[in-house]
Specification:
Helix content is 34%, strand content 14%. It is an alpha/beta fold and 333 residues long. The protein has a single domain, classed as NADP-dependent oxidoreductase domain (TIM Barrel, Alpha-Beta Barrel), CATH 3.20.20. The strands form three sheets. The protein has a seven-stranded parallel β-sheet with strand order 3-4-5-8-9-10-11, with helices on one face. Strands 6-7-12 form a three-stranded mixed β-sheet, with no helix packed on it. Strands 1-2 form a two-stranded antiparallel ribbon. β9, α5 (167-174) and β10 (181-185) form a beta-alpha-beta unit. It is globular. The chain starts with a strand and ends with a strand. This is Oxidoreductase, aldo/keto reductase family protein. Keywords: Oxidoreductase.
Length: 333
């Protein structure tokens, strides 16, 4: 797979990364660890070098399931890959709500405890890219960035970033310790963060879209009759998977199918290629539990869309009827 630099940071990763959350969290009960370990090894073999996790991707019984999985599975390849993990968030598992509300905590002492725990679970002496999982309104961005600068000096992390950040937060944090990447929700159905692109380009920051396939809808593998396990699979409550939403999204799905046919590709590959061809510093991180999807997503990096084709897609998306799309869970202070 082709490689890309995240902004102007000097950090190079595979053009498509692997979001590993769904192996342990939010997409049904955790997958079999042996099978996922084999899948992660195969990912390295076919060219993935960028793996995304977080200290909170797990279950109420084991909230660190995903980091532990990656630590064991990727240890043999550690010098060939980039691991991104996150701090500053926990789930309110006692709320009785699914998805669980989010509780932020980016106090310096909490960050220090988090980084030590992640280093141990990932079985490594450094974290390549360490994200603030969500902005904590109780802790100034400058203070968080100061802790990141210290962790970089100590060699515990090499780069840092923020997830779901705004321009103000990015600028304030970046002025203290340069940010390598911003990881925000982004897909053909969720384009509001395109307003950040000029800022990211100005500051030399990479953009890492999570949920780049709108939680899988843009893979065109689901129908109005698709069902998901309530309680463990968040798609059961996502608006784009309601039966009536497939009628609302008929034109969108028709667009990606038509483009896929023209480019001898799949709808998922078109959805990923569309964002890859927008900026050279965009690196999406779709997730999967299946080798066939792993291969399919990687193939998106070989699809070329011209600037005019991207503009035409954007123009169509601007006026297209779509259903609501999942925008994330509520944050509690």
């Amino acid at each position: 797979m082709k490689n890309r630099e995240l902004g102007k940071s000097g950090l190079y990763v595979s053009a498509i990364g692997l979001g590993c959350m769904g192996m342990s969290h939010a997409y049904g009960a955790p997958a079999d660890k042996r099978e996922m370990s084999e899948l992660l090894a195969k990912a390295v073999e076919i060219g993935y070098t960028f793996f995304d996790t977080a200290e909170t991707y797990g279950t109420t019984e084991n909230p660190h399931d995903n980091e532990e999985l990656l630590g064991n599975a990727l240890k043999p390849y550690r010098n060939r890959i980039v691991i991104a993990t996150k701090f500053g968030l926990r789930f309110d598992t006692e709320s009785g709500k699914i998805p669980y509300p989010l509780i932020t905590d980016s106090r310096p002492d909490t960050i220090r405890r988090s980084v030590e725990g992640s280093l141990k679970r990932l079985q490594t002496d450094h974290i390549d890219l360490y994200y603030q999982h969500r902005v904590d309104v109780g802790v100034p961005p400058e203070e968080v960035a100061g802790v990141m600068a210290d962790l970089i000096k100590e060699g515990k992390i090499l780069h840092w970033g923020i997830s779901e950040a705004t321009e103000e937060v990015i600028r304030r944090a970046h002025s203290v310790c340069p940010i390598t990447a911003v990881e925000n929700r982004y897909s053909m159905m969720a384009r509001h963060y395109e307003s950040l692109f000029p800022v990211l380009e100005e500051l030399g920051i990479g953009f890492v879209p999570f949920s780049p396939l709108a939680n899988g809808l843009l893979s065109d593998q689901y129908t109005a009759s698709s069902r998901f396990e309530a309680g463990t699979d968040y798609r059961a409550s996502m608006p784009q998977f309601r039966p009536e939403s497939f009628a609302e999204n008929r034109e969108l799905l028709g667009l990606v199918r038509r483009l896929a046919e023209e480019k001898n590709a799949t709808p998922a590959q078109i959805s990923l290629a569309w964002m890859l061809c927008k900026k050279a510093w965009i690196v999406p991180i779709p997730g999967t539990r299946k080798f066939s999807r792993l291969q399919e997503n990687a193939g998106a990096s070989d699809i070329d869309l011209t600037a005019d084709e991207v503009r035409q897609i954007d123009k169509a998306l601007d006026t297209m009827r779509m259903s609501a799309v999942f925008g994330g869970t509520a944050i509690k202070s």
